[in-house]
Amino acid sequence: MAKPGGWAGKVLRVDLSTGRISTEDTIEKYKDFLGGTGIGYRVIWDEVPTGTKPFDPANKVVFGVGPLAGTGAPCNGRTAVTTLWPTCWPKPLVASGHMGGHFAAELKYAGYDAIIVEGRADRPVWLQIEDGKAEIKDARHLWGQGIRRTTVEINQQMGPEASVAAIGQAGENLVPMSVVINSYSHSAGGIGGVMGSKNLKAIGVRGTGSVRIAGNKEEWERVVKLHLSLLGANNQHVVPNSPQPWAEYYSAGSRWVASTGRQWGAAEPNIETGACNPRDLNKIAYRTNNAAFFLGDSAWKYTVRGNGCTSCPIRCHTVLKVPKVSSKYGIPAMGQNTCAGLMLGRGFFKTFPDGPKGETAIEACMVGIHLADDVGVWENYGQMQRDFQELYYNGTIKNKIGENEFRSYSWDKYEKGDPTFLFELLPRIAAKEGELATALGMGTGYLLERWSIPEQEWQKDQKVAYWKMGHPKHHANEDAGQCGVIINTQYNRDAQCHSHANFTRNGLPIQVQKRLAADIWGSSDAVDAIAAYTPMNIYKAKMAKWSLLRKELHDSLSLCNWMGPWIASPLKERNYRGDDSIESLLYSLATGDKKSREELDTVAERIFLLHRALTIRDMGTKEMRADHDTMPDWVFTDPAGKDAFTQGTNRMDKEDIKLAMDMYYEEMGWDKQTGAPTPSTYKKLGLGDVADELDKRGLLP
Amino acid sequence: MSHEKEKPQILPETLNLIRSSSQFSRREFLLISGVMVVAVSGLEAWGAKETPLIIMDQAKGLVIADPTKCVGCRRCELACTEFNDGKASPTVARIKISRNLNFGPKGLHAGQRGQGSWGNGLVIQNLCNQCPHPVPCANACPNDAIVVSPPTNARVVDPDKCTGCKMCQRACPWEMMSFDSDANKATKCFLCDGNPKCVEACPAGALSYTAWRDLTDKTPPRVIPTAVVSPEKAQTCIDCHKK
Amino acid sequence: MEQREQISLAMAQIIRARSETGQLVQFEEIWTELTGQGVVKSEVADQKSFLESILREAVAGNEDLEEISGKNGIPHYYSALSLSETYAGILIRKEESSLIAEIVRENSAIYPRPVPLDFFKESPFDLTQQEILDCLGKMGEQGEYQDIAQTTTSIGTVFLYSNRHLDPGYASILAEWFDVGQINSP
């Protein structure tokens, strides 16, 4: 049979209990779910019974990539990891982590679209995958080692090109707040403990194969180049953050930070980033420097270069060289990460001697990534750090952990903003050593429960940024008003959705954003200027639906939702329009399965609907509106007491949000009262079997 | 894109010289012919005895790389294979960075003090030197399947002649020969007829297409070649290289 | 080529070359350069009005060439191939005391958002801390700039805004969002 386009063609199934390794045909079994989270949700639905707990052998963890992974489509280096979520509180439900790097591409070249890991090995093992062959190997010599040593030793076995996803001591110790990491700095949060519970230390992949482009290669080149021409900087910000000769607009909040005078200062010799005209596609990699964006301008002098996932020209990770941290802290001068990962170390501290963007803060970040990315501790989008600060400064930690343990931490160092404190904290979290470490490692929901703090306390405090079910807000009303609120209600962890925030933060003036919004969602009323929100309307609901569907689409195709969709572009000659059909163009050409934008969005809707069904099934209730799609009280408050829908506040209104949920459910074809999808919606999207199962359990509206 | 073999241009004088099997120095020859190609199998048409192909003419173009700018995205490898072969394959890619990406060219023997993402961050790009004479891959090919392709004069695998023996792989000290297992053919950098796709694709401007110069003594070898040159070819060396 | 045409072409090239380096150019500078290049014969070199008319023609005749004037009324020229109207607008006002005020008003109106004070230290403004403070001082005294106000974020960064377009509460929350909020919600 001819090799398929896009897909590698096989899903690998590994039963660690029996040692049995088998494969399935991707297209035969999973084509309607594409890949990534699509395959993940399908497997969990079909094979993991309600009531299973994350660390049970019956739980499964699905490493899924999509038909675009491993191709030259820009921004496709993502692996979605779907499983029952250890930090989902009070009851574990399905969720996904995501990791970048080179793992996704290597898996495709090895001949696989996904790996389904089942059962539990009776001793530590690692999974070796090489060009169509998989083998379970003894990992007892690796168990107890950090992520980095594990990776290096597996590379010694498999060769330097192999891509290794490994857990550290945190995952081994079944710490729920733990990660799996590949390619040095690319982590999937929440997964470490699940792998640890299966005694799976790592997965090493080496592939010398290829991914076939089904369509005409000249056309493929044309579409890839079209896509490249529409790219902005990280998060698809499409204007520079300072006036540039070529630019009509600029925005201080943009991640497009290149400019004359800003250099990769630790490159040898250093490299000027320059004006980066968007028409110069050989300069895309210089637009973004997330170390400078997040840590302050002084990070430029420590910047060696950008780094990131296969095929992505954006390079949202920054490779830093900070020589003084070697002598000061005994850690390597080199470190790299992006976004929340980069800021992990800094986030624990309330204050630093030289301010939040000073040198000490940078040192704390270097210590943080050095420790956390090796022992494999997860921060849950900064929630661990916010909880820690709150609990320390309000006296709770002192109360809860007993005098002896309290004295075993150097709190004076902590209060002064001394990064060495992290050496005391992070390894202990990985080792579950002591009450504080254990509690922090459980995730916010379980932490609050353990320490008898009502969830309400966290839900009324905007500062702590908590949303629900043990996880934080993630681009909610402060980014996109009601649309952001809706999105944050939909998942069983923090909503890993960036479709909406990429757009609202892209730096274009509000009138331009409104014009683009009208094209995509039907009216300029879909977006407001931030902190100047207006009452709910149907277009905001359409935007919320689009955002969610595209997030699932990206997670199933392997396209980066931190970079897409591409509805805005930096090009004045296009009136800053991007192209809303980029995903379908790439998909159709790569796979040979021609789908329009609408048709592909329908597949995405099917995938998202399956997530909804899983949530309903495993919660055992159809009362999603009341029991699941909730928002914290702080959303409806304002620190200065301003009213909702006035300028200068992100405050939402309860009645208005009720209307928002009504409109959203209607857009989705779900029952307004319960928020549960209707039988006809399931059937329309080809999930009739799912509806039948839910019907048996009385979970249809 | 095409790496089809073009019929080489041969001046009548050269033909005569070859027919008469007269001995001449390389310099003389080049002076006389002013032409690039020494001998080709096309000569069969003239009834001449088949002489193995020894590439003499130099390449005109070269892709060079700046390792301090490489951001490890691999778009060069993807452009090379997707836009030329219709499939994404770093293994077949004719520019090679994946093998140096994690730990540098020395691989794991450098530990964490090496290069690549796990070392000092430097990614060394490996490119074909478009070797001057003697061209190791071409000379090792028992089928004369590696030829010169005007106008760039890149050394190019003629897929019609390649039998997939992989001798060329063993001949290149820089391990720059690729093997396409789907087609069962060797392949190598052919400079995309003067508009290299890797250069176009690099988002950091780390690659440039420039006038050829000899980098063979500047590029550290990766392996000791173990190719065997056929006796017929080795014999022709004596035509020029005699004491 | 007719001399008029030749001069016109040379003028266009000078403007474009300057724009590529991120600069505007005035007639006087074009004149000097033309003379230096030897494009203009000595007998026409003194004919300012003659050359000015060619320049006007060149600008009118080339789609990418634009004219822009600051408060002092002196026309400057640039090529839209290299410089946006926004950027040229900043350059033309660099010497003007109203530059900061106008940038702040524009940002407050169209995006809308306040502008960090330090913004004006960077290219293409290139003002020193003292120059910025002096400018703010002057603005404080003049009636026409009473709309320019300050707000400080929780980490001490000063932002400027125009209260014609943003009220203090709005400016404050936006400044906090750009300075702190976006970083804490990566």
Task: Give a short overview.
The complex is a heterotrimer of chains A (701), B (243) and C (186). Helix content of chain A is 40%, strand content 13%.
Which terms summarize this structure?
heterotrimer, A: 701 residues, alpha+beta, Aldehyde Ferredoxin Oxidoreductase,  A, domain 1, Aldehyde Ferredoxin Oxidoreductase Protein, subunit A, domain 3, 3 domains, 6-stranded mixed beta sheet, 30 helices, 40% helix, globular, C: 186 residues, Arc Repressor Mutant, subunit A, 3-stranded antiparallel beta sheet, 8 helices, 6 strands, 52% helix, elongated
How would you explain this protein's 3D organization?
Chain A is globular and about 60 Å long. The model of chain A has no long low-confidence stretch (mean pLDDT 97). By secondary structure, chain A is of the alpha+beta class. Chain A is 40% helix and 13% strand. Chain A folds into 3 domains: 10-206, Aldehyde Ferredoxin Oxidoreductase,  A, domain 1; 218-454, no CATH class; 474-696, Aldehyde Ferredoxin Oxidoreductase Protein, subunit A, domain 3 (Orthogonal Bundle), CATH 1.10.599.10. The two termini of chain A are 44 Å apart. Chain A is built from 30 helices and 20 strands. Helix content of chain B is 23%, strand content 11%. Chain B is α+β, with helices and mostly antiparallel strands. In chain B, the strands form 3 sheets. Chain B has a two-stranded antiparallel ribbon. In chain B, strands 3-4 form a two-stranded antiparallel sheet. Chain B has 8 helices and 7 strands. In chain B, strand 5 (178-180) and strand 6 form a beta hairpin. The termini of chain B are far apart. Chain C folds into 2 domains: 3-91, Arc Repressor Mutant, subunit A; 97-184, Orthogonal Bundle (Arc Repressor Mutant, subunit A). Chain C is built from 8 helices and 6 strands, in the order αβαααββααβαββα. In chain C, the strands form 2 sheets. A 3-stranded antiparallel sheet of chain C has the order 1-3-2, sandwiched between helices. In chain C, strands 4-6-5 form a 3-stranded antiparallel sheet. In chain C, helix 1 crosses helix 4 (48-61). The chains are: A alpha+beta (701), B alpha+beta (243), C alpha+beta (186). Chains in contact: A-B, A-C. Strand 13 (211-212) of chain A pairs antiparallel with strand 2 of chain B, so a sheet runs across the interface.
